[in-house]
Amino acid sequence: MSGPADLRALPSVDQMLNAPAVSPLVEQHGRALVVDELRRVLGEVRLAVRSGGALPGKDGIVAALLSRLDDRSRSNLRPLFNLTGTVLHTNLGRALLAQEAIDAAVEAMREAAALEFDLDSGGRGERDSHLRELLCELTGAEDATVVNNNAAAVLIALNSVGAGRQAIVSRGELIEIGGAFRMPDIMERAGVDLVEVGTTNRTHAKDYVKAIGPETALILKVHTSNYWIEGFTAEVPGAELSAIAREAGVVLLNDLGSGSLVDLSRYGLGKEPTVREAVAEGADLVTFSGDKLLGGPQAGFIVGRKDLIAEINRNPLKRALRVDKIRIAATAATLKLYRDPDRLALRLPTLFMLSRGEAEVRAQAERLAPQVGALLAPSGYAVEVCNCSSQIGSGALPVDMIPSAGLRIAAASGSALEALAALFRSLSRPILGRLRDGALVLDLRCLSDEAEFLKTLSEVSGDAVA
Length: 466
Hints:
Radius of gyration: 28 Å
Number of domains: 3
Distance between the termini: 33 Å
Strand order of the largest sheet: 2-10-9-8-7-3-6
Structural class: alpha/beta
Shape: globular
CATH superfamily of the largest domain: Type I PLP-dependent aspartate aminotransferase-like (Major domain)
Largest sheet: 7 strands, mixed
CATH topology of the largest domain: Aspartate Aminotransferase, domain 2
Number of strands: 15
Strand content: 15-25%
CATH class of the largest domain: Alpha Beta
CATH architecture of the largest domain: 3-Layer(aba) Sandwich
Helix content: 40-55%
Number of helices: 21
């Protein structure tokens, strides 16, 4: 049995630091981290030897150290394969950026930029100026501003226009978005008093008219993008609400949520209201997101009347909610793609993935099924091509499903499937599918790199999934 004599042969921290195999690790990770992890490894070895384990050689200690350093340096915010069937998955970062946006962001990160510097006058400039003209061009609005997300856009718009006064909202539009953020809570934080009108399923023009009084600052219309009410329903269209607000001398704020700049029906998807349509209907302010259907980085846009945008920009909250040069650069590059609508679906990843034909995705599944099956068959898993139903995600068109295809992985037991799903999540580039109807389903709508997918799957060994 191993004992104290073995422990006397255990190298010290200094001896290990002088080992040729450790020097590159110090260079890569820094001396402090290597020393910290080396002490932990040697401590674990001492405990193992005292419990009867064999004393490893220096190579074994270096291997253990390398494993620990890799774990410490590996980020959880790393690339993965989104095969869940949800294209704009909030938990997975929503929209993938176009190459043009990536290039613009990298350039902004690498060099100083005229973020708030006017090159013509040599004086101070405005960071919104890099996006204002593009947003006005694409939406038809008088003016525009940007903050860090759409919840912030709604918050600052409400606070700027209605703080201390009333905002009228239909009961059917008091939505809750991801993470249990509720519209009434945002309104409370904005300092406006909520006035509910109508019922959950039916709200009429007369409900708004009756509720307007001396303390009314605005009418808030909220696009119910993350749920759908069917049956005996009624809501007041934006154009009619605009007329009511104009007649009463109050502001109409239309929160589109996801917010699309193009008619999605031209790509075979369901109809979502566009920002240009909301502006044309007469909304005084329109808010929408940057990282959903628009396909850019996280941002919240506010477009509309010039005097109201100026009031928002004077709000002290604007500085707290502003975006940095990296996101401004990526957003500007994304918006410029919309100037060429004929090629938009080829250049904007979000639209490309949403508009992929079912036949194209199925052909991909048929190519991959035999290769994936060969990897998993030794461990008792069966792989076959299956029909899937993808969804846009992030609240857009919640009841509309997009026909898709994928791989259905079956096993003898649910525990085996859960083990496989866990193993897929542990790969160097995690693979995320969804457990459904007694199988692990990999929807291939969002898979663009087959070679990298197969390379990652090759990390799976028969023993690992047995």
